[in-house]
Design a protein that fits this description.
The chain is mostly beta strands. The protein contains two helices and 17 strands. It has a six-stranded antiparallel beta sheet with strand order 1-9-3-4-5-6, with no helix packed on it. It has a six-stranded antiparallel beta sheet with strand order 10-17-12-13-14-15. The protein has a three-stranded antiparallel beta sheet with strand order 2-8-7, with no helix packed on it. The radius of gyration is 18 Å and the shape is globular. The model is unreliable at 1-5 (pLDDT under 50).
Length: 251
Amino acid sequence: WPNAANINPASFVDALFSTHLYTGNGTAGRNIENGIDLTKGGLVWIKGRETGPGGGSQGNTHDLYDTARGVSQWLTTANTYGSTAQGSGNGITAFNSNGFTIGSAYNGSENSNGEDTVAWTFRKQPKFFDIVTYTGNSIGGTTINHNLGSVPGMIIVKNTSHGSSNWRVYHRGSDSSAPEDYVFLLNDTNERYDSDSYWNDTAPTSTQFTLGGDDDVNDHGDSYVAYLFAHHDNDGGFGEPGDQDIIKCGS
């Protein structure tokens, strides 16, 4: 490219998202290099894929680690557990400029010996993906600022303080006219349902999203993490010469 010196690597999906396949070896301190600079912030979502030659289990959970909560802080989409600190040398032990470091396996998902594993990594970047942490206050209509730089297509929220709160999801595809009126559960098979207790029947904007007063999203004094995914329809701003979309939230 003649203008390569002027191209921002973060304008391309390769620097922002990775699906990385590897086989676990049970050895702590293993570096997984996927080309994503997690020192800029991001999320790693790991799943054991199948029964490998070393045993393993197809029942392994989806394990989530993000830079906002810090290394070894584990969440799983399979249940309502809060943020759990793994023991020394377990889970993800470092977020690096070219991927992440894993320890020995936790729940068999990160690095179980012989287990085929997938890691999906999302780097924080305006108009692509953002992570927000906040403290609840139980007041409906509370607004939470974000740095996505565009209207979110999907927002996933989890109470990280205790293990009795469901994962709650806003999705632009939940309704053709007022998706902010509806909520999904990530950790169950329930259909959408209409309630103002989660998003206060208020559409998210390019700078904020709004909470209702339900404990799953806004209990007084509890800590929360929110993952925000952008949606673009011919208004992206990525690629060369910067007119491409790289993320959509469909249904």
